[in-house]
Design the sequence.
């Protein structure tokens, strides 16, 4: 070894005792798969319920709504891209030697999503939707987002998050974005400002819950 | 250049040892960790960690390395991976130190503040307190003593202490609370004995 002879350690030092204990209890570990493969795995599993729900959705109506409103198309592209990039950033954040700035990966798509949604909702001057409809949207995002987030957390547990709150927050954002993307198929009315605010609240809730529970969930296996 | 090639061969041997450790080679792992100790010390020192905190950072980093060993990608160099972990642990140590009371650099506050320097006998009293605490801890049963030393004095987490001592987290919690209770009784009775 290159460094061994330079600084021999005393046999009874605390470091030696710790090293001996860790070496005695060593068990083989399987190196993690590539981040790309793990992101694609999550996207594929998330796409399955998405495809199932698309089969029962009014796709023709959804397509015509999107064709009539470019802001809706941009918002959909932004939400899908945010889901994928946030999942990638969350997975990269569990690899200690990756640049922490990867956490900013979802920022451009998130900005596109927010910008397109706000401009769409603001330009149309839509009548605020009923509270029950808005709450149904929130319920949809949370209902679908929580299992998506737990699935991603299971993938993240294979790694080691040096910043578990950040990884958890990104996982929550990815899950909420994926759920909001699927919600677009079932959203039979244009986005009103109160609806948009409740969508944002649901996304923020999931991201915040991910950040809050990141330390407990991601360090539990460590 | 000879220095560069030595560094590269060091990097290659560390990487090879880590790969061997990932498949369960305990001897290679032990050698790797021993080689890492001076490297971690140097990295932590470069981040500004000094004194006794340096040993804590080395131990925290070794523990993190152990838990995170599956995240090492053999296709990538080893030292940047180790450096990222060490720097994180060094920052944690510096933050812990930063949370302790620090001197305030404010001229007015400095002028107006009453002299809170040590009174005659303070040092002696502090030493006596430390001695009696050390004696009380030394009299605890081994499990309680280890729990108090690692969790209370070294501020290690339950996970880290569990790895270090080989005890379960539940056993550590029980030992910690029993140890605190025993210390409280022991120190109180000593104080009452002194007062009397």
Sequence:
């Amino acid at each position: 070894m290159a460094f061994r002879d330079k600084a021999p350690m005393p046999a009874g030092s605390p470091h030696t005792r710790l090293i001996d204990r860790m070496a005695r209890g060593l068990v083989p570990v399987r190196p993690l798969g590539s981040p790309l493969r793990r992101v694609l795995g999550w996207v594929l599993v998330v796409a399955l319920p998405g495809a199932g729900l698309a089969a029962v959705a009014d796709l023709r109506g959804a397509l015509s709504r999107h064709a009539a409103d470019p802001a809706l198309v941009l918002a959909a592209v932004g939400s899908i891209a945010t889901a994928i990039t946030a999942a990638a950033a969350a997975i990269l954040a569990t690899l200690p030697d990756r640049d922490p700035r990867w956490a900013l990966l979802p920022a451009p798509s998130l900005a596109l999503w927010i910008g397109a949604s706000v401009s769409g909702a603001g330009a149309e001057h839509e009548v605020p939707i009923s509270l029950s409809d808005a709450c149904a949207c929130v319920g949809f995002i949370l209902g679908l987002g929580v299992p998506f987030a737990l699935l991603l957390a299971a993938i993240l547990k294979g790694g080691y998050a040096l910043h578990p709150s950040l990884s958890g927050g990104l996982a929550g954002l990815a899950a909420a974005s994926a759920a909001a993307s699927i919600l677009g198929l079932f959203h039979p009315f244009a986005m009103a400002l109160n609806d948009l605010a409740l969508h944002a609240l649901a996304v923020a809730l999931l991201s915040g819950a991910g950040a809050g529970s990141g330390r407990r969930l991601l360090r539990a296996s460590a | 250049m000879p220095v560069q090639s030595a560094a590269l061969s060091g990097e290659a041997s560390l990487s090879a040892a880590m790969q061997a450790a990932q498949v369960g080679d305990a001897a290679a792992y032990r050698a790797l960790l021993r080689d890492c100790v001076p490297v971690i010390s140097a990295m932590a020192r470069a981040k500004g960690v000094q004194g006794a905190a340096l040993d804590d950072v080395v131990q925290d980093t070794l523990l993190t390395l152990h838990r995170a060993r599956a995240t090492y990608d053999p296709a990538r160099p080893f030292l940047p991976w180790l450096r990222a972990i060490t720097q994180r642990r060094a920052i944690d140590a510096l933050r812990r130190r930063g949370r302790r009371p620090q001197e305030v650099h404010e001229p007015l506050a400095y002028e107006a503040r009453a002299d809170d320097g040590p009174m005659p006998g303070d040092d002696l009293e502090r030493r006596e307190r430390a001695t009696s605490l050390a004696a009380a801890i030394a009299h605890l049963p081994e499990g309680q003593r280890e729990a108090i030393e690692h969790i209370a004095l070294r501020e290690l987490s339950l996970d880290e202490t569990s790895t270090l001592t080989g005890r379960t987290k539940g056993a550590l919690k029980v030992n910690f609370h029993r140890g605190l209770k025993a210390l409280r009784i022991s120190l109180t009775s000593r104080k009452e004995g002194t007062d009397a």
In short: The radius of gyration of chain B is 22 Å.
